[in-house]
Request: fold
Amino acid sequence: MSDFLEALQQIAREKDIPINMLIEAVESALATAFKKHLNLNGDIRVSIDSNSHQPLPFHAFSIMHVVSEVMDPTFEISLADAKEIKPDIELGETIERKLDIPMHDLGRIAAQTAKQVVTQRIRETERRKVLDEFVERQGEVMTGVVQRRDGRTVVIQLGKLEAMLPPQEQVESEPYRINDRIKVYVLEVKDGGRGAQAMVSRTHPSLIRRLFELEVPEIADGIVTIKSVAREPGARSKIAVSSRDEKVDAVGACVGHRGTRVQAVVNELYDEKIDIVRWSPDMSLFISESLSPARTSRVTVNEDGKSAFVVVPDNQLSLAIGKSGQNVRLAARLTGQRIDIRSDSQVAREAFDVLKDVLGEMETDEDETDD
Reply:
């Protein structure tokens, strides 16, 4: 085998590029280089002989069109001349004619072209590998290092890939300091022309889900399931969990011994508060749980199945609603229900007002009857 082929095979092994793909790329590039060097109008084909022991194991052919009258001899051939090469050829067909290129020109052009092609193919292969690797990581959480800011966008280094954290996916209260190590949720990976481009998020609700999967073995093993997540990034989140094993407490598994597991997630999210509640197929019970830490007196799910009326003790009303309505808002997202909350005294007062109106109407009816 020639030194030229051995060099190609070594590169193919080191860079994990199929040798056939590399040879085809070199053949194509050599054809273009020879055509330019010889100033030909027609097409050229280059063939590399993988079994050759010659220093330059390839041949170049000019693709000639068989015509009745030759106007450009660089890519046209008369029918008579073509039949001397291939007796059964007809007008309009093509035939290949071997090109006679001086050896010193052939070697110089081949070396330059092969170097360019191999370098380009290595870059393309590495870009494709990075793209393939990270496409499979879409929907996962990855650890990256904050590299720089590009306007309002934060650039995160994820191994060989630079990922963009755009303003709409950032949490306003998070600092994103240079060289900070943070976990991000991979939203999308695509081919950007110059290589793989990734879009990541710190606000996505699934970031919470994936972080708990990393911290809680029972979730990774499928024993504990996160049924739903509701999040106001940087402020507070709620997750609903259930267990497939009666012996495993879903909430306890997520909290961890002395709160170590949930605290690890809280620390990663720069002290975002996280409520872990027990999921239930009974919507009334689930809504009651979702309003934690507030206690409820009763929950009535309306006939439409999309809304509920909740009554809480007087001293629990502000806790159930939360600051600026945050607690009930998250509970509604978690359960998928519209939640209307009243205190015991409000319900009693409303009931009294209704009763008073009814009594008033009855008295009016009686007066009209007496008249």
In short: The longest strand covers residues 181-191.
